[in-house]
Amino acid sequence: xxxxxxxxxxxxxxxxxxxxxxxxxxxPPPTSTPPPTSMAALxxxxxxxxxxxxxxxxxSLHSWSTGHGPGDGVSSHYERLxxxxxxxxxxNHNNATSGSRARHLPDQVELAVxxxxxxxxxxxxxxxxxxxxxxxMTSETEFASHxxxxxxxxxxxxxxxxxxxxxxxxxxxxxxxxxxxxxxxEAWSGGTCQSMLAADNTEEQRQSVIKRELAFNQILARxxxxxxNCRWDNNAVYDFKFSASDVSVLDYFxxxxxxxxxxxxxxxxxxxxxxxx
Length: 277
Fold this sequence. Notes:
Elements: H1 3-21, E1 39-43, H2 77-84, E2 92-94, H3 105-115, E3 119-123, H4 126-129, H5 140-157, E4 162-165, H6 171-178, H7 182-188, H8 194-197, H9 203-225, E5 230-232, H10 236-239, H11 257-269
Parallel strand pairs: 1-2, 1-3, 3-4, 4-5
Helix pairs in contact: 3-5, 5-9
């Protein structure tokens, strides 16, 4: 090949080699889920922050989900979302009701649908376990039916809403943490969660509550997994090793302010926006 031709060809060869050597461009990371402009909490007395610090009644201002108590140390989902986008401010609904069981969840869902919210938190099941005895707990079949009905209604009524489902706190750990506390035993003797906390329960009876609780958490996980807009906490709440300071000294059963703060942190980390704050 003549020298001139070779010189003319060289730039094209180099260009081709450079083009082939370039790495394939990577796709941009997926866009993060935008924060909601409204939210609702569903569940029981834990979400109503009953007996948290100030009285034996509901204290929803300090709730892990929708609370906004100034200076209480509880950074709720609502407060964290407000920090991300102020559009949610004032649009937090606590539909949870103290004493609620899974069978009450569909009615709470109905309220959330009427409120047309974009984010829903669910923490339910403790009262289905806390019966007069282990023999009178809600059955797995009944629990599953109510949970499936509630999530299906949410999906129909709020198809774009983000749902967060938390696991049930470990009731056996509550007993183990405070079983040697005389004031706790006195409080429990008034009828609190006798299936687990009754003084004359056998270990076998307590183990039956554990077994049912594990089954309930599996039911919650499976039901949530049926919907792409539903996020399960992967047993973050159940697995948390809380201490006596996390439990209210008013009833030795519900979370204290410190307990609500830990619950808010645990569940937030597992939520749709846990990596944004």
